[in-house]
Design goal:
Pathway: Purine metabolism; 7-cyano-7-deazaguanine biosynthesis. This is 7-cyano-7-deazaguanine synthase. The protein is built from 9 helices and 5 strands. It has 236 residues and is α/β, with parallel strands linked by helices. It has a 5-stranded parallel beta sheet with strand order 3-2-1-4-5, with helices on both faces.
Length: 236
Amino acid sequence: MKTLVICSGGLDSVTLAHEVAAERTLTRLVSFDYGQRHKKELDSARACADRLGVPHDIIDISAVGRLLTRSALTSSELVPEGHYTEDTMRITVVPNRNAIMLAIAFGIAAAEQAEAVAAAVHGGDHFIYPDCRPGFVEAFETMQRRALEGLANIALYTPFVRQSKADIVREGARRGVPFAETWSCYQGGERHCGRCGTCVERREAFHLSGVEDPTPYEDPDFWIEACRKYQEKQSS
């Protein structure tokens, strides 16, 4: 099945690209510049495309991103530190981001006669990001069938939608994904900060999966205390 993959350059989407390349016909990777402070992730997406031998398109929607204010990813708001929790990580939501990206990707897929668009939304994001939930995936696919009726029949492929980040790490390890060449940190510095929500989530996922984490972090041990505090809060 000819499949286009939306690839940010993060661990999840790079793992998905490798999975699609192994099991389907990967046609291209599509990435988006929406004005994110961690634009460095796009370098990892480009490296992934080169590694898999497919075209890579970076689509500039930064003019749209500037209007999606009040997110720490597209404004001067501070990126919160610690474990992902609904109250602290809500500020990292970019309104309608996945819906916008998916709509563009489906248009590209229709133009090149692809049969599916793949996105790496996963179970750990559900309670924070509404456009990562199974209900959104199902509704979006239904909408696209209407939007492209008579023109194309394109599926939305989201194999991680009910899986954890640790599950994705295990899958990536099985596929030989070079994890050190992926980027997760929302700070976008020289190295992963080790303190923001995505860094803590990444470090915890490697720990839970039993896979060695090759990522260099500015603060490699912060995740331990962050996870301890999270567990205490969950049990109280």
